[in-house]
C-alpha cells in the first residue's frame, strides 16, 4: 500500500491540507499500478469523509466551527443541497467547497452510514479512476 497516497487522500477529504490527486498522478507517472493506486486513494478519501461524517453525527455547533472552521454559510449551502437532492447528493462529496460540508450535514441529519459509505465511495472512486484514465 502506498501510505503517503493513503494519508494524503485521507487528509484531503477533511479540512486539513492535502493534494491526493497530484500525488496520484505522480505515482502513476513513476510506474505505479493504477488499480492499486486508485483503490488506495479511494479508501483513504472515504475514511476521511467518515471522520467528517462522525464529527457531524457526534458533534455540536461549537465543534463544527472550531475544528472544521465551517460557518453558517457553508453549512446552510450543504443543507440546501442535501435537502434538495437527498442521499444521491453524497455522490458529489468529492467536490471542493461543498464536499466536506455535505459529509458533515449527512452526519448531522443522521444519514444511514451504509448509504453514506456506498455513495461517497462511488463518487470518490469515479473521480480517482477518471484521473488515472485521463493521465494514462
Describe the structure.
The chain is mostly helical and 136 residues long. The protein has one domain (3-135). It contains seven helices and no strands. The chain has helices spanning 3-12, 20-29, 34-58, 61-68, 72-85, 99-108, 113-135. Helix 2 (20-29) runs antiparallel to helix 3.
What features would you highlight for this structure?
mainly alpha
List the helices and strands and how they pair.
Layout: H1 3-12, H2 20-29, H3 34-58, H4 61-68, H5 72-85, H6 99-108, H7 113-135
Structure in a nutshell:
The protein is built from 7 helices and no strands. It is an all-alpha fold and 136 residues long.
**Unreliable stretches:** none
Main structural class = mainly alpha
End-to-end span in angstroms? 20 Å
Strand content: under 5%
Amino acid at each position: 500500500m502506498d501510505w503517503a497516497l493513503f494519508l494524503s487522500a485521507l487528509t484531503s477529504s477533511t479540512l486539513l491540507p492535502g493534494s491526493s490527486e497530484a500525488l496520484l498522478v505522480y505515482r502513476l507517472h513513476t510506474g505505479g499500478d493504477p488499480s492499486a493506486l486508485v483503490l488506495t486513494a479511494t479508501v483513504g478519501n472515504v475514511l476521511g469523509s467518515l471522520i467528517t461524517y462522525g464529527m457531524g453525527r457526534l458533534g455540536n455547533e461549537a465543534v463544527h466551527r472550531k475544528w472544521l472552521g465551517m460557518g453558517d454559510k457553508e453549512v446552510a449551502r450543504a443543507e440546501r443541497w442535501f435537502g434538495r437532492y437527498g442521499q444521491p447528493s453524497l455522490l458529489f462529496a468529492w467536490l471542493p467547497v461543498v464536499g466536506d460540508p455535505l459529509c458533515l450535514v449527512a452526519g448531522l441529519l443522521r444519514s444511514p452510514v451504509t448509504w453514506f459509505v456506498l455513495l461517497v465511495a462511488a463518487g470518490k472512486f469515479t473521480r480517482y479512476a477518471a484521473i488515472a484514465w485521463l493521465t494514462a
